[in-house]
Structures are given as C-alpha cells and as structure tokens.
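The pair is listed for reference:
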Amino acid sequence: MLALGSLALGAMPRIAAAVSDTELRAHGEVVRRLADAVELRIDRFARHDAEYVAEVCRAARQLQRPLIATVRDAAQGGAVDLSEAQRLAAYQAAIPLVDGVDVELRSPLCPPVLTLAARHDRLAIVSHHDFDATPANDELDALLAAANAFDGAHVLKVAGFANSPSDGERLLDFLRAHARRGLIVLAMGPHGLASRVFFPLFGSLLTYAHVGTAGAPGQPSLGDLYGELRRYSPDFAATHAA
C-alpha cells in the first residue's frame, strides 16, 4: 500500500488541504483538525526563493500532518508564471522537508523532480490538469502510459473539467479500471463536485479542499468536504471525529 509519510493511502478516503503560505498561518488549526494531509501550493506563496520556501515548509511541519509540495506551472493552474529554474529551485528547497511531491507529468521538470524525490525517499505524484475539458479516453490511456514510463512516479493524478455529467462518468470508469496503479482522479467544475466526495470511495487516493480560496473550479471547503465524507464513508466517519 502506498503511503504519504506515515499516512496510508487507499484504505479509506483522505483529504488534502491545499494551502498558500497566508492560508497556512490563518487557518492552521482548522487544517490540523480536519485534514489528513496538506498540499503546499508554493506557486501561491508570497515569495518563491529557496530560503522562504524552506521557512514555510518547516512551519507547516508543526501541523503534524504529511506534506505535499507542488510548484504549479501557470499553464496547469499555477498562480504565477515562474521560470523552470525558479520552480526547480523551489522544489529543491521543499523536498527534504516534505513527505511527497506533485509535478506535472509533461513538464520538463518531471524527470529531475522525480530524481530528487527518489533521492529523499518521498512519494512522487505526477499530474495532469485540464481546465477546459475532460481528456478523451485515448488521452487518458496516453497519460497512464506516460506515467508508467517513469519508474519513480508512484501516483498519477488526473483532473479534468467536466462539461457534463458524462465527463465525470468517463473519469470514474478510468479510475475503476486502473485504481490498482495508484491514481488520484477528480472532475472540476459544477458537474464535477460529486467526484470530490465519491471518487475516493472507488479508489482515488486523495481528494482536495480549500481553507480560503479555491485552487481549482469546484474545489469544496475543507469543512464541507469533511462533513460529506463522514456522511458517505463509514470508515472515514469511524476515524474522523464529528
């Protein structure tokens, strides 16, 4: 079974709170109480130099929750347009201080970031985000093949914008067919909201929530998602207090 630090993935739904540096400071207690893990959205930090990134990562460790570092590319939903050199330097600063890393599958940074993750024995997530549509079935198969070509890619994350309920159904079919590979799958937008709650019941390893500003279309608040998972997952409810 895959693990993010000491957190086992796959046995039950797990929530990652996606936070900026300011959200971490303002809502840290809520994150500590309700989130299973924390995704540090370094692209949304006030600064991106290595010293500041390391400072925020060390502060986040005080939450005693597994940490994922990502420096999202602007073309894949990142908050700012950082150069590849800036992004790599931020990853280099963060990886020794976190438990996992998320890098875009088709980014030039994917190979060096995976190498860094392996060197530090960190969980590596390779991701693809489409904010306009849901990838067609042949594109989903291509993403899976590309992820499988990297030995150090433990998890494939696919997020597509659902323009209709059928888009969500196709993503669910993909998840159910390949869940053993290690997948995070979600649908963005109004038609995708249910995927945030129900895809983890079918094997998606993480679902994401916000504590201030949504990081993707349709991303629910941490409190709302926590409550919905307690409603629909008996295992989650048994281990997560009301």
